[in-house]
Amino acid sequence: MEYSLIELAAIVGGFVQGDERYPVKGLATLQSAGPSHLSFLANSKYAAQLDDTRAGAVILAHSAAKSFSGNALVVDDAYVAFAQLTHVFEKKYTTNLGVHSSAVIAQSAKIAASAVVGPNVVVGENVVVGERTHLGANVVIGDDTFLGDECEIKPNVVIYHGVSLGHRVRVHSGAVIGSDGFGFAPTPQGWFRICQLGGVTIGNDVDIGANTTIDRGALDDTEIADGVIIDNLVQIAHNVKIGRYTAIAGTAGVAGSTVIGERCTLAGGVGIVGHIEIADNVHITGMTMVTKSITEAGSFSSGTPMMPTSEWRKNAVRFSQLKDLARIVKKLDSNRRD
C-alpha cells in the first residue's frame, strides 16, 4: 500500500512541510528507514538521528520541524500521530467469516452473523458474541459470558463463566479471565476452599496482554473500567477494581480487593498488597512494593537502586541498623538542645 504525505496529513490532522505528494509505503525508525518510509521523532534524545536518517519524510512536532529541511508531516503530538498511522500500515490478515466446522457451540449461544469463530473454539451455554468479534483458534468461552462488538480474542485464551466484556476489547494469547480468586479459609485440617461466586466485568476499549490472569470476585465482580491497558504476565486478584485509562506494565501483581483509581500507571514488577486504595493519577515506578493506601496524586517509589553486590550487602546490614541509628540521633539532638 502507498499513501501520499497529504493523504496521511488528513488522517492525523497535520500539515506537510515539503513535497505533499511524496509517496510513503511504510513506517520505520529514524535509523532503519529508507526513502520509501515515514519515520517519527517523539523523544528528544534521538534528535541527532535526524541529520543522518534516510527516511523520505519524518513526523515532527511543530518545534522540531522548524529546523528540519526535509519532508515532514507536522503535528501537535508526533507520538500520537505515529500511533494513528500504525493502524493505516498494519497488515490485515483476512479470515473467513462465520463459524469454523470444528468449533463446538452450545445451542443456547448467540453468535452474531458478522463474528468469526476459529478452529476448535468452545462456546458455552447462554454466551453472547457481538458483531465483528473474532475468536481465535482454541479459545474457550464459559457459560453465561457476554462479549461485545469488535472484540479480538487471540488463540488459546480462556474466558470462564459469568464474565462480561465490553466493546473493542483485545485479549492476547494465554490470558485467563475469570479463574478462581485465591480464597481459602484455614482450618486445623488444612485449607478450606471458598467458592468464588462473583464474576469479572470488563469495560470498553480494554487491552489485556498475553498470559495475564484476572480472577473472578468472591461475591461481587472484579472490575476493569474503560480504556485500561494491561501488559503481559500481570496478576489481577479477586475483587480488584481498576479505574479508567490506567496502565499496568508486565509482571505487576495486584492483591485482592484493592481499588486503583483512574489514569494511574504501574511500571514493571510493581506489587500491591490487598485491601488498599490508590488515588487517581498515581504513578508507581518499577519494582515498587505498595503496602498502604495512596491518597493523593503523584509519583511513588520504593526499594534501592542497583549497585555492586558487595556494596549492597554492606548497605543491607546498615538498613537493619537504622532503628538504632535513629535512636542515637534523637538522643544526640536532645542533648544538644539541653
Explain the overall architecture:
The chain has 338 residues and is α/β, with parallel strands linked by helices. It folds into 2 domains: 3-89, Udp-n-acetylmuramoylalanyl-d-glutamate--2,6- Diaminopimelate Ligase, Chain: A, domain 1 (3-Layer(aba) Sandwich), CATH 3.40.1390; 98-300, 3 Solenoid (UDP N-Acetylglucosamine Acyltransferase, domain 1). It has 5 helices and 39 strands. The longest helix is centred in the C-terminal third of the chain and has 16 residues, at 322-337.
The strand order across the widest sheet is: 8-11-14-17-20-25-28-31-34-37-39
Give me the CATH fold name of the largest domain.
UDP N-Acetylglucosamine Acyltransferase, domain 1
Low-confidence stretches: none
Mean pLDDT rating: 95
Number of helices: 5
Tell me the Rg in angstroms.
Answer: 26 Å
Structural class: alpha/beta
The global form is: flat
Count of individual domains: 2
CATH class of the largest domain: Mainly Beta
Distance between the termini: 82 Å
Examine the secondary-structure arrangement and name the CATH architecture of the largest domain.
Answer: 3 Solenoid
Helix content: 10-25%
In terms of DSSP E residues, the strand content is: 25-35%
Give the CATH H-level superfamily of the largest domain. Hexapeptide repeat proteins
Number of β-strand runs: 39
Characterize the largest beta sheet: strand count, sense, and whether it forms a barrel: 11 strands, parallel
